[in-house]
From TrEMBL:
Protein name per the record: DNA-damage-inducible protein J
One Gene Ontology biological process: single-species biofilm formation
Molecular function per GO: cis-regulatory region sequence-specific DNA binding; toxic substance binding
Keyword annotations from UniProtKB, A to Z: Toxin-antitoxin system
Gene3D superfamilies tied to this protein: Met repressor-like
Pfam families per record: RelB
Keyword field contains Cell wall biogenesis/degradation: no
Keyword Transport: no
Family affiliation: Belongs to the RelB/DinJ antitoxin family.
Signal peptide: none
Length: 85
């Protein structure tokens, strides 16, 4: 019996590059990162982070942001804070 097994997965090239840059900054290889994820899944008996469907308001805000609609620009962080006091 083999001491290791292979995993094959297809991901978008940009996503792969971005994730591997983060792994590198953390000193991890992709194999180590995948192993870490699998270990956390087994320890948590599920995903090690919450996975939720956003509510309608959040979905609308995400849609607006992606489409560049209904956005408000602020000249500075102070201006944003002042508007929400």
């Amino acid at each position: 019996m083999s001491k290791t097994e292979s995993i094959r997965a297809r991901v978008e090239p940009d996503l792969k590059a971005q994730a591997e840059a983060v792994f590198g900054a953390l000193g991890l290889t992709p194999t180590e990162a995948i192993t870490l994820f699998y270990r956390q899944v087994t320890l948590h008996h599920g995903l090690p982070f919450p996975v939720r469907i956003p509510n309608e308001a959040t979905q609308a805000a995400l849609r607006d942001a992606m489409e560049g609609e209904n956005l408000t620009e602020w000249s500075s962080l102070d201006a944003l804070k002042a508007a929400h006091r």
